[in-house]
Amino acid sequence: MTTKTTTTDTDGTDEGATQARSASDFGLRDGLADISDQIGLHILLVVTLAVISAPIVLAILFSTQSASQILNIGGIGFGSEAVNNYWTVLTEYGFGRYIMTTAIVAVATAIGKVTVSLLAGLAIVYYDVPFKRGLFLLLLLTLMLPVPVRIVPLYELMIRLGWQDTLLALIVPALASPTALLVLRQKFRSIPTSLVENARLDGVGPIRFLFKVLLPMSRGMIVGLLGIAFIWGWNQYLWPLIVISSEQKQVIQVGISQLQGSVAAGRPLWGLIMAGTVLALVPPLLVMIGLHRPLLKTFNYQTQ
Amino acid sequence: MNSTTAPEMSREIYTSNWQGYLLLLPIVALSLIFAYYPALDTFRLSLFKTATFGLNSVYVGFENFNRLLSSGVFQYSLVISLAFAVVVVATTLAISLYIGYLIHRILQGSSLYLVAAIWPYALPLAVSALLLSFLFHPTVGIVTRALETIGIAFQWRNDPVLAFMMVALATTWKLIGYNVIFIVGALATVPKSLEETARLDAVGSWRLIRRVYLPLISPTIAFLIVLNTIEALFRPFPVVDLMTNGGPGEATNLIIYKIYQDAFAYQNLGVAAAESIILFVISGILMYAQIRLSDSYAHFG
């Protein structure tokens, strides 16, 4: 019997049962050895993960401090300028606008990616069309063509389409996602054939089949894919830097580099830079933490 | 087609060809227009000498490649990009295996620890770069000042090796999240009975790791080596751009940064395209090698 099949699904009662059983199975001495072993593991984990997360905590603390508080040694703690720093960054340095633009790009990319992949997945799994294996392979091979491999012609294409310096350039070229298609195909193929057979016998059309069977059956997977695509869209840097030229349409990751440039001239206002950095980090971080269960399930599908 | 297996056969409940192709049209059109066409055009462009975008291009054959491969700056960029990939892959895997193993062994609170370990997946590389730049800032950085008090002058901006390490650190930090996800997932598939047997035989934990865990999760490790290599070759642009601008000297002038500079700062589009092709070939060879490698390792599982 396994008590811990997947790490994500463990809850308190399961873990309690495991401990109780291992204590009785291996006797009191082994039980005590187990407990000290576990305490050691907890200490190692807490220390390691604290190191990994410390820069974020420091960024949040420094984002509340004034320039002089940061320059004064020993000033780790909340400063007096929290409201001031964030307000300045949001209003004077355009972060309110950056957040809006980036949110539009990330949400549109996520919804578009998943929609396009859902349609293709429906065709690949449930239609008997010629050459679909070849087409599927063609789509998968785009994994070999990340943006740096096609960056110059892609930029020229944006100019010819008149999309240079528009949000279309940030959204549309990103919509074909081989990984989303791969995961959805895998999920669709795991739906019981009896359900599919019922749909066929009832004469359910493809659109109704998509909405009544496929979408409800793969809800977790779709949420996971939306989360992954949102994080990806929010974190873009190189492509927006190239294709967006007016500051009014720029995204937040490029925004923080411009913030660094503008306030670093003269006396660097690190409190402001940290406030901007925290704003650039928080949305994808919240998506990651809030959706970690569907995200993990989606990732697990990728390796199958 | 007729080579499909029985269960898949029964899934193909729709036969209308035009409907099927209509559903496939968006993703196929997007892939052709925004992935295949620009990628092929990169090949074409790599054979031209260009002055500015779209104007004055002259066919020069393989001259761009010849000039690049004999250029000291490019050779150096290539070597440090590969060295960078090796450092990032090794560091990321070592840290992630260590964290993944701890999370696998822990009985209480493993979900909480997992979330605390995988969050860097959401970390934007630009944020990673700016945070580390600030914490290690030569004058105001809290880490630099802490190191100063114990007598270490950590002036990484002027030191080629330290600058390289800082760029690698900012990249590794993000990659840990993704790696831990897959390592914990792989460890969870190791049969509990094997672990229990090993424990009853009083097998030491180090031997348990080497004889049981590592062989069984080696396909996942091979997959992660491929993935991390590609990430290290294609993604660290924001880190270089924000932390070092390729310097000091050429110490962090990774090929992905050089492509950007050649194309968009110096407008040498043909040269940049040739660099893209070389990067593509290298990553293709690495991918192929790793897929072969993971095939041979998979027999352990």
Give the key terms.
heterodimer; A: 304 residues; mainly alpha; MetI-like fold; 2 domains; 15 helices; disordered N terminus; B: mainly alpha; two-stranded antiparallel sheet
Question: Would you write up a description of this structure?
Answer:
The complex is a heterodimer of chains A (304) and B (301). Chain A has two domains: 12-83, no CATH class; 96-302, MetI-like fold, CATH 1.10.3720.10. Chain A is built from 15 helices and no strands. The longest helix of chain A is centred in the first third of the chain and has 51 residues, at 12-62. The two termini of chain A are 23 Å apart. Chain A has helices at residues 12-62, 67-71, 82-91, 95-126, 132-140, 151-161, 168-171, 178-189, 193-201, 206-217, 219-235, 238-243, 252-264, 270-290, 292-302. With 301 residues, chain B is mainly α. Chain B has a single domain, classed as MetI-like fold (Orthogonal Bundle), CATH 1.10.3720. Chain B has helices spanning 6-9, 17-45, 63-69, 72-105, 110-118, 125-135, 142-149, 160-187, 192-200, 205-234, 237-243, 255-265, 269-297; strands at 48-49, 58-59. In chain B, strand 1 and strand 2 form a beta hairpin. Classes of the chains: A mainly alpha (304), B mainly alpha (301). The interface between A and B is large, with 108 and 102 residues.
